[in-house]
Fold each of these.
Amino acid sequence: MATARASGSARVQAAAAAPGGVAQSIRIKLRGYEARILEESCEMIREAATSSAARMSGPVRLPTRRKIFCVLRSPHVNKDSREHFEIRTHQRLIDLHNPSAQTIDSLMSLDLPAGVDIEVKL
């Protein structure tokens, strides 16, 4: 029971430290077809967050989604001859805790590579 009180008081202290009494965080979800470009984007976000003294957790690797397409090699004949193609979507999750205005400005000014989809939740 003592551990529940300790974790509850830690949440209250974190909420009191944030302006307005509510703990603020930004959740950034990155998606892309190439893992290397996704890792480069995560590194750029990490540099922007650490330069403005925001706490960062992640990047957390989320499960890769695979879409597999089965296509006949030739139309009308040879139904047993097929090709399989797949698209892999890699995902990363980054949380920024107690971001400042400078953190948000540096994130907005980032020029991330093409092929990276970004979803930001406050």
Amino acid sequence: MAPQTKKSGKQAKTTKKFVINAQQPASDKIFDTNAFEKFLQDKIKVDGRTGNLGETIVIQQAGEGKIEIIAHNELSGRYLKYLTKKFLKKMQLRDWLRVVSTSKGVYELKFFNVVNEDADEDED
């Protein structure tokens, strides 16, 4: 096999769009989208540093309970899912909400399905 040579020049810029949909918990008034947007702006790392978003990453609210992240550099959806879980843990909502990927680049916050076990015992 021939050795691979390095290609000179910059890579083509990739633009990725992610949506975090928190309509259900936001409509129930248990999830604050403004605080979550601020959290993402403070915590997303660019080139290994927080608070270094610049023009490469744009975070904005898109409608009721939706946050849109547009990245003009490499940003993984798993990293956004990790930060979302971290925010839920900070706000003590991790026991009731989970982060589910509904399609590529779209994450949704859903409630856990809680089954009341006391009701089953009363029937016996």
Amino acid sequence: MVKSTTIVRASDALPLAATVDDDQTEQILQEHKQQAKLIFRRITPNSEPLCSIESGRILYSASYMIADNVVYLTIADKSYPRKLAFSYLDELSKEFQNSYGAKVETARKPYAFVGFDTFMSKTARLYQDTRTANAASSNLDKLNDDLHDVTRIMTKNMEELLWRGDSLDKMSHLSTSLRSESEKYRKAARHINVQAMLRQYAPLGAVVLLLTIFIWWRFL
């Protein structure tokens, strides 16, 4: 079943809304929520829009969806169907966009849209029982076309995702270095080409210049 949900702004990981969890859930999911914070900081424009994160050490998995510069992440039982998890996140994203989409970029303080917890809690209850959720998903047309194709949802290990940001930073640095070296190479190549042309045509130019001077001096 769905245990906890957090919504953050993708560009800077600012928390926008979250479910109000009881003390027992907070204690059980403490490690997972800390990992979720690291995941939010690792997300980049190159991250997969739909991703399921698992770890062999824990009983829960996390799934996130990125839409319109907002990350929707939920923690659920590891046995909870991924399709339902992403259907749940899809429901949240549609309602959140309709209610607060225009205000996301201007939000300055954490949990500026705390009132969204009411909708999240109500929707989470609908998705608690997988049988009820399946029926509701069918009756209310909760799944969009992308979510029908579960193979398009990426699955990653928690450890892999937590290191992903470091890898992307290295790739970004490598790309910048390659562009710089490429520019240096192009400049050097142009310089070499100019020198080669001068060596090739300089003698001919000198002869033409001497002939011109001779003709000018002889006939003028």
